[in-house]
Amino acid sequence: MIHGSIHLIEDLCTSCMICARECPTWCITLTSHQEQTVPAPGARPRTHNVLDTFTIDWSLCMYCGVCIEQCPTDALEWGGAHVPSAPRLTDLIHSRDRLRPPASGA
After folding, report:
1. Model confidence, pTM
2. Which of 23, 27, 40, 84 is a plausible cystine mate for 60, CB 3.0–4.6 Å?
3. Which InterPro entries did the record assign (predicted)?
4. What residue numbers bound the domain in which 79 lies?
């Protein structure tokens, strides 16, 4: 198994924040909001979290995999090679669009 970059599978993320809390370097930041679902007739309304932002600061990441191991929904997975160096630290902060796994097939 290659311990390189980390991919976020957004459809599986429930915004539980376990990855961010368990990260030893606190390199993961995420925000979310709650939305109410329309229940079936006679059922009570329910809410669920919707992911707004998700970032990983690769300048802090130790590539330890604790976030991947602790994710209860398997929304995080190992990607390919390590994230390449960058001329500025801010270039090492990747948001959801850069953390998506590459499209399969095509």
Report:
1. 0.82
2. 27
3. 4Fe4S_Fe-S-bd, 4Fe4S_Fe_S_CS, NADH_quinone_OxRdtase_chainI
4. 6-36+46-97
Q: How many domains does the chain have?
A: 1
**Within-domain flag for 102:** no
* CB-based contact 46:36 (threshold 8 Å): yes
In a domain, 83, yes or no: yes
Over residues 28-85, the pLDDT tens digits come to: 999 999 998 877 788 888 888 999 999 999 999 999 999 999 999 999 999 887 888 8
Residue 103 within any structural domain of the chain = no
List the CATH number of the domain containing 30. 3.30.70.3270
DSSP the chain: -----EEE-GGG-----HHHHH-TT--EEEEEEEEEEPPPTTSPPEEEEEEEEEEEETTT-----HHHHH-TT--EEE-SSPPPP-SSGGGGEE-HHHHSPPPP--
